[in-house]
Amino acid sequence: MTAAKKTHRITLIPGDGIGPEVSGAVVKILEAAGAATGVAFDWHPYDAGANAFEKTGEYIPKVLYDSIEKNRVALKGPVTTPIGGGFASINVTLRQKFELFANFRPVKSLPGLKTNYPNIDLVIVRENMEDLYAGLEHEVVPGVVQALKIITEKGSTRIAKFAFDYARKHGRKKIHAIHKANIMKLSDGLFLRCCRTVSEGFPEVAYHEHIVDNTCMQLVMNPYQYDILLTENLYGDILSDLCSAFVGGLGLVPGANLGTECAIFEAVHGSAPDIAGKDMANPTALLQSAVLMLHHIDEPATAERVQAALEQVYREGKTLTKDVGGTSGTKAFADAVMAAMEAPVAAA
């Protein structure tokens, strides 16, 4: 066994519902991968949401804020967000607090998993701070609520720059800016002007623009025409869920919230309280988010080891969870991934 060469401090937010189960499975897999590649993790676990409120009287305890600020990297399981009332979204609050302006969601097919759209490889780059998610809404008079859409030159330019920088670094050839500027002429018009300006500095990346409703139709008809989708906040939220269906659903796709100082990697699915504690949850989404995290902290060998093992489990198809047509539970799936990681070592 290789001695640890570096220890990474990671803030861990297990989440609620199925969160602790999938988080626990992912931590086990990362620990096993790290033991083989000489990487150690110092986990700093904290609750958020309703669980945290019961214990501390705060939905996001100050110690959690402090931990993320100190460690600069967090891995987050799903946290329930009340609908139409209750406390504010934990996800949005953390993104705003740490100015995590870029939401990065790769959508890629897993081997061996049959879907209606094979060999998908899309990237959604979503502005993460503005638009309707700025949370500026109020009741004007009873029965009339006003919500403000915020689009700025600064926010639009930096998310466009993020997308084009990523395309250049990773050899992606095409970006579509998604908008509704035919109706939202000032706000979405500003977003497009910023995207066009940034695109001029990246002549090797083809730049296109599609209206968001047409994009939905085009994606369903032929998703292969797209490479990177560059979006405002709300459009990106909707389109990322739509695109996840191409590869098997939200239980499979990763998500990263990136800023200049901090990063939070999270599963983009919900907390699924109906199956919590039943050893049924699929940890793939959070595991692939953890792979993104490993790349972010400059541990590519560990990331590639985990990803290769995950893909091997899907390729074999013997130990999959029920949501993707298997009969195995969370723990068995995690064990299969760890066994797949050991196979190359044993062969060597």
From TrEMBL:
Keywords: Oxidoreductase. One of its GO terms (molecular function) is isocitrate dehydrogenase (NAD+) activity. Pfam families: Iso_dh. It is an enzyme of class 1 (oxidoreductase). One of its GO terms (biological process) is tricarboxylic acid cycle. Residues 9-337 form the Isopropylmalate dehydrogenase-like domain. Coiled coil: none annotated. Its EC number is 1.1.1.41. It comes from the Bacteria. Belongs to the isocitrate and isopropylmalate dehydrogenases family. This is Isocitrate dehydrogenase (NAD+).
